[in-house]
Amino acid sequence: MTAATTQASGATQASGTTGLWAQSTLIGGRVLKHFVRSPMMLLATFGFPLLQLFMLLATFRILVRDTLGESYVVRLAPLIILVTAFSAIGSSAIAFWVDIRSGVFSRLRAMPINALSILFGRMLGDLVRIMGIAVLVSLIAYLPGFRFEQGVGAALGFFVLVALFGLMCTSIAVVAALSAPYPPVIMRWVQMPTLALTMMSSGYMPLDAFPDAVRPVVAANPVSTAVEALVGLSHGGPLLVPVLATLAWTVGVSVLCAVVMVRKFRSFVAG
Where in the cell is it found (predicted)? Predict the structure, then answer.
């Protein structure tokens, strides 16, 4: 009787929103622990964006300043933050693919927890990692001249947009993990599209520098809208259209992915 009562209490707790959040937080903490215990992951995640930032600045800083009349770091620092979130889709998807097909998932499923907490915990851990990189890159970029010149509110808006962009990336990663038959397929699915969107964006060079024929495509690119919005919130410039376009992209893709991921995950759990 006592065991049955305890089990029922656990099931009630697992089904509640508070219980789901608490369980997702615990699993998100597990994701972060695995991340910080891997020196290679730390080096790749934090070292590569900073290396890319300073290498591109050293190569193109004077060229961009002389030809376009603007400081390159103003545009490059937001781009590096977004590219880091974009490039993490593949590794995050593979890690989640392994998790849900290993003994870890079976052990978690044997516990009185909401199965969706496994899904949300992965996304929460990855989102915290993306925000940590965003803060680090913003701080380090102060050395070559990056500044939040539009006030505290705009700086907070800067990180809110980064969080929404990160949420979109983690959502795509989870859908890829649930859909791929094996890990190498994931890289084929995400590597080329993310690389193409990054290269065909106004992050590496302003929109006016692109040929007229491709300019509308570049302007509508979600990386371009996010870069322009982050530049407007940090340095100044057009704000309304880039912010609204970024909100449309990030919220729209995240909601679409949420519908697909919940359906696929429930099907996966049901076996």
Answer: Cell membrane; Membrane
CB 123 within 8 A of CB 171: yes
- Whether residue 215 has pLDDT greater than 50: yes
Tokens of 252: 């729209």
For residues 76-111, b (16+ Cβ closer than 10 Å) or e, as one string? bbbbbbbbbbbbbbbbbbbbbbebbeeeebeebeee
Residue 9 binned pLDDT confidence (cut-offs 50, 70, 90): very low
Query: Please, what sign has the CA dihedral across residues 158, 162, 168, 171?
Result: negative
Give the tokens for residue 173: 């990663």
Q: Which pLDDT band holds residue 112 (cuts at 50, 70, 90)?
A: confident
Reduce the DSSP state of residue 82 to 3 states and report it.
helix
- Give residue 254's Cα distance to chain centre: 11
In this structure, what DSSP letter does residue 151 have? -
Whole-number mean pLDDT of the chain?
A: 86
Crossing angle for the helix pair 17-36 and 2-15, nearest 10 degrees?
80
Instruction: Give the model's confidence band at 188: pLDDT under 50 very low, under 70 low, under 90 confident, else very high.
Output: confident
Amino acid at the residue 162: V
Residues 232 and 54: their CA atoms lie apart, in Å, by: 22
Q: CA 61, CA 76: separation in Å to the nearest integer?
A: 10
Highest mean pLDDT among 109-118, 175-184, 221-230: 221-230
Query: Would you say 129 and 41 are in contact if contact means Cβ atoms under 8 Å apart?
Result: no
